[in-house]
Amino acid sequence: MATEQEILLPNIGDFTEVQVVEVLVKPGDTIAVEDPIISVESDKATMEIPSPVAGIIKKLNVSIGDAVREGSSVAIIEASEITEESPSETEPPVVEISQPPEKESPVEQKSPQPVEPKKLEPAASSFLDGKRKPHASPSVRRFARELGADLGNIRGSGKKGRILKDDVQSFIKAALHQGNQPILGGAGAPKAPEIDFSKFGEIESTPLSRIKKLSGGHVHRSWVSVPHVTQHDEADITELEAFRKSLKGEAERAGVRLTFLALLLKAVVDALKVHPEFNSSLAPDGESLILKKYYHIGFAVDTPDGLVVPVIRDVDKKGIFALAGEVVEISERARQGKLKPTELQGGCFTISSLGGIGGTAFTPIVNMPEVSILGVSRAKKQPVFSEAEGQFIPRLMLPLDLSYDHRVIDGAAAARFIVHLSRVLADLKRALL
Fold first, then answer.
1. Whole-number Å distance between alpha carbons of 320 and 244
2. Active site residue 218
3. Is 236 left (phi over 0), alpha (psi -120 to 50) or beta?
4. CA atoms within 13 A on the CB side of 431
5. Per the residue annotation, which of 177, 218, 406, 420 is the catalytic one?
6. Tens digit of pLDDT for each residue in 14-33?
7. What are the tens digits of pLDDT across the range 54-76?
8. Does residue 351 contact residue 374 with C-beta atoms inside 8 Å?
9. Cα-based angle 194, 195, 201 (whole degrees, multiple of 5)
10. How many C-alpha atoms does 185 have within 13 Å on its Cβ side?
11. How many CA atoms, within 13 angstroms, populate the side-chain half-sphere of residue 286?
């Protein structure tokens, strides 16, 4: 029997609020279970919200540009089949990363409107007048703090002068455009020159994918907010590679392909346990460290739309075969754009491996709010002098690049971490015990 059912926005992870960027159905459409209704955009990805029931769309309660959060009413459906449990009592439906829409989001369409504090009347703005505090939510305050923006210099466009995330973004864009606003500790970036490259030869303009736009903003924020230092070293993985190859047959019987990354994940966890400051985040007030007792490790995946960093949870509790299977499975879904929002959250430490492509070294950018990231380049055989044998012998050496937040970690701690990691990789069996 058909009955009307309200579809609510499911749990979208750590995101307090997301924006509707595309409405995929209209009233009168017939949909099946898991058919997407709308696309929403967070600061990390674009996601499709599927229907938990099949039926006919009677009414849409959202439109493009609306800000929605968990529990927001999305649509009314005349359901022809109802799930056994209501959406609030079941696990949230799968929310997948979708191909980004072609048009620009409302945030990107806004023109920056820089405003000088002295030109505003205190009663008509949210500017500080020496007595009032800026009217903004905790998430907006944190966002502004990460960008180094002073809320006292930002006019709020929300109800009663409330400062929204869009206002902070517009302020930062205007400041970077003018190069004279008080951001990033008073240092503004000069405007980039506009160059007509076509006068030098033939050109082609290709738009960035939405994932690249979103991740680009996050990477830029990390780069300007975190004082980066990178420590370089090499690990002798001759025995480790022999160990991996010796398990090839057993791994195949278990139905997995044992990659080096699975072994590296276990080695990293061992190093994090010995050096817990690397498994932390700086508190928002900058006065303390938040030490994490769990080990969720992110790893960079190269996809057609750009770099994505899914997170494998509880690495310390899983065996290498389980990790190997999860790495392959989650990497494939990342390339297909089918990751759940929860699989992009909660990371403690990130690994960026370019070993399958090449290179000898690079400087990875810390993935805020983490405090360190490990870069791995291609391993190669090279002569290493053996004290025991008194001669050079060929060894398989792996380049390691550890970038870290110098506000939290000093050079000596970084050196100890990467030396410990190198020793574990040289003899991983002790970490597997």
1. 10
2. no
3. beta
4. 29
5. 406
6. 667 888 878 888 999 898 88
7. 899 999 999 988 888 888 999 99
8. yes
9. 160
10. 3
11. 9
